[in-house]
Amino acid sequence: GEDVEQSLFLSVREGDSSVINCTYTDSSSTYLYWYKQEPGAGLQLLTYIFSNMDMKQDQRLTVLLNKKDKHLSLRIADTQTGDSAIYFCAESPMTSGGGADGLTFGKGTHLIIQP
Amino acid sequence: DTEVTQTPKHLVMGMTNKKSLKCEQHMGHRAMYWYKQKAKKPPELMFVYSYEKLSINESVPSRFSPECPNSSLLNLHLHALQPEDSALYLCASSQDPGWERSNQPQHFGDGTRLSIL
């Protein structure tokens, strides 16, 4: 079955880089996502990567995908206090019947910023 | 700012009440979703609509009744809920997978925080 694993907490100092890791099991996943959730808010789509890519960069965010090891990471450069949130990794397998399907989320990594 | 709008933001209701949650998007997406999120947990899929037709029901109790009146709107009708149904209810939308059968990125609203007394 599908399973997405990520560590529950990460603590970094302001200004340092944060690296949040995720492993997934479904090799048919076509897209892999990173969502950010601040307290009391919904999920914000931060970035995503298609399975035929191994890296994607978007301003302070860098996503690395190791498809062989089914490992995904999100690097946030120059971490700021506003980056404090829960970060969810999610996979999106190729649809079974050709229609839309839900995402499988990891449990979320709580990013804590130390001053 | 999210492009998926959910109302109300907060809802408190008794176990005998009937209420509805609403979701609207104007991105031209033809797939819409309801997720339930309990505190400190990831979202769990409840329903998927594709081209205004219900395509996935993840064995959700019948006290939750979804409706998709048109391609921009998605409702969730609530009746006789239980205290354990208290949660954040998230709506999402995406483009339909199309011929490639690849799920497209899903865009979420801010959710409705529901409390059952």
In short:
Helices cover 0% and strands 55% of the residues of chain A.
Plain-language structure description:
The complex is a heterodimer of chains A (115) and B (117). Chain A is an all-beta fold and 115 residues long. Chain A contains no helices and eleven strands. Chain A has strands at residues 4-5, 9-13, 18-24, 29-37, 44-50, 55-58, 61-66, 71-76, 85-93, 104-105, 109-114. In chain A, strands 2, 4, 5, 9, 10 and 11 form a six-stranded mixed sheet that branches. A five-stranded antiparallel sheet of chain A has the order 1-3-8-7-6, with no helix packed on it. In chain A, a hairpin with a 6-residue loop joins strand 4 (29-37) and strand 5 (44-50). Chain A is globular. Chain B is mainly β. Chain B has no helices and eleven strands. In chain B, strand 4 and strand 5 form a beta hairpin. Chain B is globular. The model of chain B has no long low-confidence stretch (mean pLDDT 92). The A-B interface holds A 30-31, 33, 35, 40-45, 48, 88, 92-95, 97-103, 105-108 and B 2, 6, 31, 33, 35, 41-43, 45, 48, 50, 55-56, 58, 88, 90, 92, 94, 96-97, 101-111, 113.
Radius of gyration of chain A: 14 Å
Largest sheet of chain B: 7 strands, mixed
Helical coverage of chain B, percent range: under 10%
Beta-strand proportion of chain A: over 45%
- Give start-end ranges of low-pLDDT stretches of chain B: none
Mean pLDDT of chain A, nearest integer?
Answer: 91
**Ends apart, CA distance between termini of chain B:** 31 Å
Query: Spans of chain A with pLDDT under 50 lasting ≥5 residues?
Result: none
- Termini gap of chain A: 41 Å
Helix-strand topology string of chain A: EEEEEEEEEEE
Quaternary arrangement of the chains shown? heterodimer
Total strand segments of chain A: 11
Query: What structural class results from the helix and strand content of chain B?
Result: mainly beta
Q: Count of helical segments of chain A? A: 0
The biggest beta sheet of chain A is recorded as: 6 strands, mixed
- Overall geometry of chain A: globular
One letter per element, helices H and strands E, the order of chain B comes to: EEEEEEEEEEE
Report the count of strand segments of chain B. 11
| Strand content range of chain B | over 45%
- Strand-pairing-aware structural class of chain A: mainly beta
- Most extensive chain-chain interface: A-B, 27 and 32 residues
